[in-house]
Amino acid sequence: MLMDRRLFMTLSANGLATGSWTAAPRALPVSPATKARIKAVAFDAFPILDPRPVFALAEELFPGTGLGGECRSRQFEYTWLRVAAHHYADFWQVTGEALLFATTKLKLTLRPDDRATLMNAYLELKAWPDVRPVLESFTASGLTLALLSNLTPTMLRANIRSAGLDGMFERVLSTDEVRTFKPDPHAYQLGVDALKVRREQVLFVASAGWDAAGATLFGYPTYWVNRQGAPHEEMGALPDGSGETLSNLASFLT
After folding, report:
1. In angstroms, rounded to a whole number, what is the distance separating the alpha carbons of residues 127 and 64?
2. CATH, domain 52-121, list 1.25.40.10, 1.10.150.240, 3.40.50.720, 1.20.1440.130
3. 191-218: string of b/e by CB count within 10 Å (b at 16+)?
4. Segments in the chain below pLDDT 50
């Protein structure tokens, strides 16, 4: 099972790096009542921030090695392992450990300047092209917007600034505040506590299938921005909607 997960994550990361995506599954039907009670939208970071330049940089520095996908796989596996083991380290440290593991596994020499370049790329992300118009329309409609991410507060602040999205989110929430990672329910509870609304009034927007499943199991109405065209997780926890762009999300809420 672990190898299956690793393979899936590697393929997903490589899909982001190359842009070779398939069509996303159709949006799932949702009741008007679910839409009507939404008062806030809490986004994972990556429906907003485009991570592909990180993979492109890894390919530029270590061409043909698959470093970006290997690092991405281990990055998430380490967050899940640390949650299960109750042995927390923040996402910046986890990212560095994942990079070290990946280069060691692939028998690559990671020079200090290359390590710094790859790590700093996680502080310089830009927004996906469809982001700003959708966020502006949501704000104009009276929805409260938040980020709810595994990234550290420093990473979130740097990337919001880099993406030109200062002031777009009422709350910027890092799971570092509760020293855990999604899909731990304590991580999702951050949104309820910070936004001061019931969980069924917060639409959680995920970029990964496992995050969509975790948020659904927590009790959030959930939308999956499935830019990779990946299959749904087989956990009996389908999101309320899915589509391949943030524009699809805007249609979902109208």
Report:
1. 27
2. 1.10.150.240
3. bbebbebebebbbbbbbbbbbbbbbbeb
4. 1-28
Kindly state the tokens that stand for 17. Answer: 């790096």
46-85: per-residue pLDDT in tens? 999 999 999 999 999 999 999 999 999 999 999 999 999 9
Q: Catalytic residue numbers?
A: 44
Helix, strand or coil for residue 239?
Answer: coil
How high is the pLDDT of residue 32? 63
For residue 154, what are its two tokens? 């420093």
Right CATH number for 32-50+127-253 from 3.40.50.300, 3.40.50.1000, 3.40.30.10, 3.90.249.10?
A: 3.40.50.1000
Whole-model pTM: value is 0.86
Q: What is the DSSP string of 38-69?
A: --EEEE-STTTEE-HHHHHHHHHHSTTS-HHH
pLDDT in tens, 161-170: 999 999 999 9
CA pair distance 131, 35, nearest whole angstrom? 20
